[in-house]
Amino acid sequence: SNQTIGIAALTSAGLLLVAVVDADGMEVGAHTSSANFPGVSTLKVEFDSSNRLVVAGTLGTGTTKIARSISAANGDDLVFGTGGVVTKSAFLLSNIFMREDSKITLIGTQAAKLTAVWYQADGTADPAFNSGAELLVVAGTAVDAAYDSNGKLVIAGQLNNNFVLARLNVD
Hints:
The protein is mostly beta strands. Helix content is 0%, strand content 57%. The chain contains no helices and 15 strands. The chain has strands at residues 4-10, 15-22, 27-36, 42-47, 53-58, 64-71, 75-76, 85-88, 92-98, 104-110, 113-119, 135-139, 141-147, 153-159, 162-167. The strands form four sheets. Strands 4, 5, 6, 7 and 8 form a five-stranded antiparallel β-sheet that branches. A four-stranded antiparallel β-sheet has the order 9-10-11-12, with no helix packed on it.
């Protein structure tokens, strides 16, 4: 089978371990990233359209970091972001999505609002999305999100024990 699975774990020192295994559980490649994710509370893994592993995690400080590997065997992509890492302060990660053009969508909570942030493939803010800024949508805590059949992002969350949904009308 051609299906691969990305796995991320942390050492006790907060260093990121990444691995890719095939559908039979055989290791395709692995390395210890130089990205430091101490005290991470949420860790999400996705592949971009070039089959690079992208890992995002929220640290105990409320800061979210994103790291990308060139490949599981070949190490960190140091041209991504700054030295291979993108940092987003005061952002609690709920999920990460990879678009077909290798752009990254982060979903989370910032300033007590459901929030979406888009990054270009190189880790810089995407100027095509809300002029390169995060979009704070509606009060609440983001839980998850999905793209609907029209390619629009729908964010689900909660506020005061109520369910909150927000559909973004941007591509």
